[in-house]
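Thread: Newbie trying to understand structure tokens

Hi all, I'm a second-year student working on a class project, and my supervisor (Dr. K.) asked me to get a predicted structure for one chain before our next meeting. I've only ever worked with sequences, so writing a 3D structure as a token string is new to me. If someone could post the tokens and maybe explain what I'm looking at, I'd be very grateful. Here's the chain:
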Amino acid sequence: MVGVGYGAGEAGMNWQLLGVTFVTVFLAEIGDKSQLATIALSGRSAAPRWVFVGTASALLTASFLGVCLGEELTQVLPLDALQMGAALGFFLLGVRSLWPKKKEPGRPSPQIPSGKD
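---
Reply by user tm_fold:
Sure, no problem. This is what the structure looks like when written as tokens:
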């Protein structure tokens, strides 16, 4: 992203980078499979607040790992190579999603715990 000032360092708060990151991730997550899974889980659960806590914890952990991995990878690979690899990965996932899924006869749907134990 042009003009975001990635090199601002840890000395002060980079509000522009925070805002760009929030908006980018927020828009990327709308309609994402993690959001659809969250909707399905909370719709079937009697304790949706625990679905929220689990979802928020998972997204925080995934983001933390992404930041750590991204920081390390940019030390050994050029940013252009990382972006190309990510684009290729998303392209392959998109192509794979177009293939018909195999149906497994007789497989029951998973039961979601209600939290009323």
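A couple of things are worth pointing out once you decode it. The helical segments are 15-29, 33-44, 48-76, 79-98. The chain has one domain: 14-98. Feel free to ask follow-ups in this thread.
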